[in-house]
Amino acid sequence: MTDPYAALKENRWREVAEIDELLESGEIDEADWHRRLQELIVPAYLAAETPWGQSGKTGTAEDWERSRSHVADAIDRDGTFLDVGCANGYLMECLPRWTPFAVDPYGLDISPELAELARTRLPAWSDRVFVGNALTWEPPRAFTYVRTALDYVPPARKRAFLDRLLGFSERVVIGVFNEHESERTIEDELDAWGVPIAGRSIRANPWKPGMEYRVLWIDA
User: Which helix (H) or strand (E) holds 49?
Assistant: First the structure.
């Protein structure tokens, strides 16, 4: 079924949908799926001229703050924070000023190029930025918080991905993602898995009427 709100959501949704269809049909395998996603995303991130652009957000610094800072609503105590899909590390950099709690940021990215960019930008945290696929990566420690998006893995692997992250964290933070105000797609998916949602944060998207920025969190 075609998503009637797809054009209002993230950029490149058509290309991602095509890659998903190729995997589902058996024309490519999971390794090809990850490779094609990187070929789609990494060059655009590396070519961006702003730190938020290198983390996947178009627009201004104010746009970044509006759309991403409510990740901090999931932080309710001091602890460690792993950003899965950290790109250039900009969320790692911003999070400590978005929350009154003391957080030690870490990052993981499947792209060696983006991980190297994060290390270059944040030399004090260079040993905290890792390269790997979170489906198979072995963490060096447990984390208080792990932030991710479920679409970092093929659709059929989402539940296994979430379970794996919950295995080495106290709380998994999902988001930020865009959904129409009439939808609860990700919440419905989690409910179908029997996964209780511990909390949520929702903000209206001022640039796309009817759309909302959402963050959900799940406790281990």
Answer: none
